[in-house]
Amino acid sequence: MSLIVQKFGGSSVADAEKLLHIAHITKAAYDAGNDVIVVVSAQGDTTDRLIDRSRELTASPSPRELDALLTAGEQISAALAAMALQTLGVPAVSLSAWQLPIRSDGVHGDAKIERIGKERVKTELAKRRVVVVAGFQGVDGAGDATTLGRGGSDYSAVALAAAFGAEKCLIYTDVDGVYTTDPRVCPTARRLDRVSYEDMYALSRAGAQVLHDKCVALAQEKGVEPEVRSCEADSVGTRVVPDGGCQGVTGVTRRESEGDAYAAVTLVGAALPSLEIEKTAILALVAAGVAVHGVDAGERTLTLYVERGQSRKAVRAAHDAVI
Ligand code: ASP
Ligand code: MG
Prior knowledge:
Elements: E1 3-8, H1 16-31, E2 35-40, H2 46-55, H3 63-87, E3 92-95, E4 102-104, E5 113-116, H4 119-126, E6 130-134, E7 137-139, E8 145-147, H5 153-164, E9 168-173, E10 194-196, H6 197-205, H7 213-222, E11 226-230, E12 238-241, E13 251-255, E14 262-268, H8 275-287, E15 294-298, E16 301-307, H9 311-322
Parallel strand pairs: 1-2, 1-9, 2-6, 3-6, 9-11, 10-12
Antiparallel strand pairs: 4-5, 7-8, 11-12, 13-14, 14-16, 15-16
Helix pairs in contact: 1-3, 2-3, 5-7, 6-7, 8-9
């Protein structure tokens, strides 16, 4: 018997039908004799909606109150996910971060996990219950709710997997793994079977939303190997591992910030920085009619700045030229 952590993102828990679907996935792992910790994000775009509601009142909400508001999203998902499991006859209990506790520092909106209390979860697992933990939440030294940064439920999942020595840390999302670039932007994007911690971290930092950057850093530090996959039955997914094996360029991602004239298109891989690859990428962009307004070379990265409206075209051109 082993311990499995399963994390489900917002789109996988968006409504009752989806909750029952993921409950079946958890039930299969539970029925096979495993202990299961489930980590959930807020349903659908709940977090964005809650932020909008705060903005109706103030342009700069108090960080403490914003966290008190946003943690409610994951609270709802955790309770509903536990109910979905119970509906299938699986004993389950939902827990918030303060019930464990998942102790974090006090940086509201971007808190770091410091320590996880294990007793309560162990007691529940010993009763053969599935434990559903609200992701994205922490509790600071003052006893106040914190959030771990956008997309932070991945980070919760890896921290729990590390704390409990889980055999597997499965990150279920709406794509079936990590791709060489966003498949919605680029039709030639390819799923990676494995990706190294270093490349995954650089991709997350540069805007790839598939995994949270703090989650990847913690996974590397603790030796957890997260597997990103979709909720489809036949999903193979991508494993984040110490050595992903790719020596060239692994992926291309982009980052746009509201109000900025330029978007950053970043290439990531062990071969970077490289003048030759830089030349190839720039020539490909120019051939596609995209002007390059700036270049930044970093460790394992090469970033090209293009006009915001052209970033998708730039991603396609760079991807097809270097991968
Ligand atoms: N619900 C939070 C967010 O939208 C955390 C997460 O999804 O992981 O950022
Ligand atoms: Mg996410």
